[in-house]
Amino acid sequence: MLAVLAAGSAFTSVSAFAQDYPTQPITIVVPFSAGGPTDTVTRLVAAAMSEDLGQQVVVQNVGGAGGTLGAGQVAAANPDGYTLLLHHIGMSTAPALYASLPFDPMKDFEPIGLVTEVPMTIVARKDFQPETLEDLIAYVKENGENVTYANAGIGAASQLCGLLFMDALDVKMTEVPYQGTGPAMTDLLGGQIDMMCDQTTNTTSQIKAGEIKAYAVTTPERIAVLPDVPTLAEGGLENFNLAIWHGLYAPAGTDKAIIERLTKSLQTALADENVGNSFAELGTYPVPADQATPEALAQKLEGQIGLWGEVIKAAGVSAQ
Question: How far is CA 55 from CA 105, 148, 156, in A?
Answer without folding.
Answer: 28, 45, 31
